[in-house]
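Person: I have long wanted to understand how a fold can be written as tokens. Underneath my words sits a plain record pairing an amino acid chain with its backbone structure tokens. Those tokens are not coordinates but codes from a learned vocabulary of shapes. I should like you to check that the lines agree and flag anything odd. The protein I mean follows directly.
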Amino acid sequence: MPNSDEKSDGRGILSAAYVSTNHDITRDDWLHEVFPEWGTFLNKEIDEATVKSGTVALWWFGGPSFAIKTSSGEIFLIDNYAGPSAYSSYAYCGVCRTSGAPSINWLRLGPQVIDPWAFTRLDAAFSTHHHNDHCDLYTIKAALKTTRCAFVGPAVTVDKFREFEVPEDRIRLVRPGDSVVFGNTEVMALINYDVIASMTGSGGPGQPRPYEDVAVSYLFKTDGGNILFMADTSYHNGYVTIGANHHVDVACINMGHAAPGATDKMSPYETMRVAQAVRTEVLVPMHYDNWANSQEDPSVLEWLVQREAPGLKTVILQPGARFVYPDDKNIGRYKYPDYAELYRPEYSWEYGSPSKGVATS
């Protein structure tokens, strides 16, 4: 059995020595040690991050899922999905009802980069709507037991919170035009034209539920800038009212492939048009990466913006990426750290002069 001191770096990443040394394991050991793939590394990064005054930090977990940390220390989750691949059926699923498909497989592509059980602080968990990947059982059950965070959502989502046994004193019901305040951060609920959400769940053919009941957009107002999350919206001309009435610095907007017959995610062109309507400075596309049936190439969006809206900045993130506004607004594409700063040429076996017994710590 490997030395227990070698098992982890203390930040949730297992050592190569541990995983390459023979020892007995069970299936439960494998599941616990391999999933989530990033362990608690990102939880600790968010917890320990210092956000300087005049900035705001955003982490993308892939798909629709984000965290925000403000300069005053508030930490929020937005549409965190810690769940698996799943299938949906015509009896409930808005995409199935739109397309007429009896069932659709939603095969998860992205890694689990966050451990929902390992947060030491959460001020609130926001759900834009009641779809499983935005109102997530796994995230909610974990946050209920490990934090005192509030759970924020529109009416149909609040019904789901109650189904998941969230206590009433931790629920915040919002409709477009409402705002909630946590610490030094105000969050406004704005209109969200999510056609698919309006047809998901109850209601008969031709009887979609009102947008105001099923979905909201969230505008986080921070000293570093205003960040807008628009979840699974479809394109709608009414979004010009957000641009006219609110200042938006960064907009996180869905994008994806849609086969003819149903539009679950917006095309790159529609995503760009929504960004133009809300008058954002920075567009962060999302949701194009996590489901196999709606995967899209973000370079198509970059090409469109360069051609049609060159004043709009696009930022293409990677799962687990940290984006600090306004510092990172011109990065274009996020690049993972390569740890070159840790390289010490004098210890190289190839081009240095290492000696036996040299300390490498």
In short: The longest strand covers residues 56-62.
